[in-house]
DNA sequence: GCTTTCACCTGTGTGC
DNA sequence: TGCACACAGGTGAAAG
C-alpha cells in the first residue's frame, strides 16, 4: 500500500525518466482512473498533448507533474496523481504487453522508446488535471491546497502540529491519518511509529505533551526514512516503483501485520484490533491502553 | 464547526 | 467445486 516513502520512490522515478518529456498522445482505458477530472477523458487527453512535463513534486501521498510554461509566473496547470491502494506508475517500453489493469497510457514525442503507464487494480487511485495555486513556486494543484505538509518536508511546522493535536478532541491514530493535520502517514506507518513511541492508538491527542509529540514525529521520520532507504514497503506486489521493482521494507516492520508474533521489545504477543474498518497492531504491554477497559 | 461513519473498488484467502 | 464472506485501506461526501 503506497504511503509517503513509496510515493517518494515513484516521484524520484518520474523525475529521472519522465520529466522534461513532451506528451504526444494519451489513452484513457478506464474512465474511473480520471474521475477527478470532471471534463472527461477527451478533455484530459486534449489538454495534455503537446505539453512538456516539469519536475515531479510530492506532498504527502499526492504526486504532481507541473505542465511547463514559458511565462515568469510558474506553472499554471499540473497533472495530479494519487496511487490509492494499488496504483502504479510504470515507465515501460512500447512493446511491453499491456498490464491486466492498465488504466492510462501516456506516449511521448521523443525517441526514448518508453511510455508512462498508470496501472491500478482496485481503482482507488487516478490522474487528473488542475489549476495550480497562484504564485506557488512548486505549482501545487489547487485541489490539494488543504493537505498538510508531510513530516519529511523541511517547512513542516512542528509547533503548529503540536498545537493542533492539543486542540483536537480525537485520538492519536485518527489524527495521524488526518491528512489535513499531517500528510503521508497511512495505516502501516501509523502503527509502526506508535509502536516505536510506545503509544496506544486510542490515546487522546489532548493528553500529549510537547516532548511526546516531538518523539512521535521523530519516530515517524525514522520509520519513513528507513523505508525510503530500501525502496518502500510491499506486501503483495501491488506496489512497485516506476521500473516495476518491489520495495523491501515489509521485512523490517515491527508492528503491522505481526498479530500473535512476539513484540521485538518485550516478547509479549502482538495483538490486532479491528479499528475504523481496518486493523491496528500493537503490543499490549509496551502500548498501554488509555483506559483500563479500552483494550484487553 | 468539528468529528465520525461509510461508500467506493477488486483480488485473495478461508470456511462450509 | 462452488459459493458466501471477510479483508486489504485512502479519500471525501454525508451524517452526526
From TrEMBL:
Involved in base excision repair of DNA damaged by oxidation or by mutagenic agents. Acts as DNA glycosylase that recognizes and removes damaged bases. Has a preference for oxidized purines, such as 7,8-dihydro-8-oxoguanine (8-oxoG). Has AP (apurinic/apyrimidinic) lyase activity and introduces nicks in the DNA strand. Cleaves the DNA backbone by beta-delta elimination to generate a single-strand break at the site of the removed base with both 3'- and 5'-phosphates. It comes from Streptosporangium nondiastaticum. Belongs to the FPG family. InterPro entries: DNA_glyclase_Znf_dom_DNA_BS, FPG_cat, FPG_Glyclase, FPG_N, H2TH_FPG, Ribosomal_uS13-like_H2TH, Znf_DNA_glyclase/AP_lyase. Binds 1 zinc ion per subunit. The active site is at residues 2-3, 61, 278. Transmembrane segments: none annotated. Keywords: DNA damage, DNA repair, DNA-binding, Glycosidase, Hydrolase, Lyase, Metal-binding, Multifunctional enzyme, Zinc, Zinc-finger. Coiled coil: none annotated. The keyword DNA damage applies. This is Formamidopyrimidine-DNA glycosylase. PANTHER family: FORMAMIDOPYRIMIDINE-DNA GLYCOSYLASE (PTHR22993). DNA binds at residues 101, 122, 168. Residues 254-288 form the FPG-type domain. GO terms for biological process: base-excision repair; response to oxidative stress. It comes from the Bacteria. GO terms for molecular function: 8-oxo-7,8-dihydroguanine DNA N-glycosylase activity; class I DNA-(apurinic or apyrimidinic site) endonuclease activity; damaged DNA binding; double-stranded DNA binding; zinc ion binding. It catalyses: Hydrolysis of DNA containing ring-opened 7-methylguanine residues, releasing 2,6-diamino-4-hydroxy-5-(N-methyl)formamidopyrimidine; 2'-deoxyribonucleotide-(2'-deoxyribose 5'-phosphate)-2'-deoxyribonucleotide-DNA = a 3'-end 2'-deoxyribonucleotide-(2,3-dehydro-2,3-deoxyribose 5'-phosphate)-DNA + a 5'-end 5'-phospho-2'-deoxyribonucleoside-DNA + H(+). Its cofactor is Zn(2+). NCBIfam families: fpg, PRK01103.1. Its EC number is 3.2.2.23, 4.2.99.18.
Amino acid at each position: 500500500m503506497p504511503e509517503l516513502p513509496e510515493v517518494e520512490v515513484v516521484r524520484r522515478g518520474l523525475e529521472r525518466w519522465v520529466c522534461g518529456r513532451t506528451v504526444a498522445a494519451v489513452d484513457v482505458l478506464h474512465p474511473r482512473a480520471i474521475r477527478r477530472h470532471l471534463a472527461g477523458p477527451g478533455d484530459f487527453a486534449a489538454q495534455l498533448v503537446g505539453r512538456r512535463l516539469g519536475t515531479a513534486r510530492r506532498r504527502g501521498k499526492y504526486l504532481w507533474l507541473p505542465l511547463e510554461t514559458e511565462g515568469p509566473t510558474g506553472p499554471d496547470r499540473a497533472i495530479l496523481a494519487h496511487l490509492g491502494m494499488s496504483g502504479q506508475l510504470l515507465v515501460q517500453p512500447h512493446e511491453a504487453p499491456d498490464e491486466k489493469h492498465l488504466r492510462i497510457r501516456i506516449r511521448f514525442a521523443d525517441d526514448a522508446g518508453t511510455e508512462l503507464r498508470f496501472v491500478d487494480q482496485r481503482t482507488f487511485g487516478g490522474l487528473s488535471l488542475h489549476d495550480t495555486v497562484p504564485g506557488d513556486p512548486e505549482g501545487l494543484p489547487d485541489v490539494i491546497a488543504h493537505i498538510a505538509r508531510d513530516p519529511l518536508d523541511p517547512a513542516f511546522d512542528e509547533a503548529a502540529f503540536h498545537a493542533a493535536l492539543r486542540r483536537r478532541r480525537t485520538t492519536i491514530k485518527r489524527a495521524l491519518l488526518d491528512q489535513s493535520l499531517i500528510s503521508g502517514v497511512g495505516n502501516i506507518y501509523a502503527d509502526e511509529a506508535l509502536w516505536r513511541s510506545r503509544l496506544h492508538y486510542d490515546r487522546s491527542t489532548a493528553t500529549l505533551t510537547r516532548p511526546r509529540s516531538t518523539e512521535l514525529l521523530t519516530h515517524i521520520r525514522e520509520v519513513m526514512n528507513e523505508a525510503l532507504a530500501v525502496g518502500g514497503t510491499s506486501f503483495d506486489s501491488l506496489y512497485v516503483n516506476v521500473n516495476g521493482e518491489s520495495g523491501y521494507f515489509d521485512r523490517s516492520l515491527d508492528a503491522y501485520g505481526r498479530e500473535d508474533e512476539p513484540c521485538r521489545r518485550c516478547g509479549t504477543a502482538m495483538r490486532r484490533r479491528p479499528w475504523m474498518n481496518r486493523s491496528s497492531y500493537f503490543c499490549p504491554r509496551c502500548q498501554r491502553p488509555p483506559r483500563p477497559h479500552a483494550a484487553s
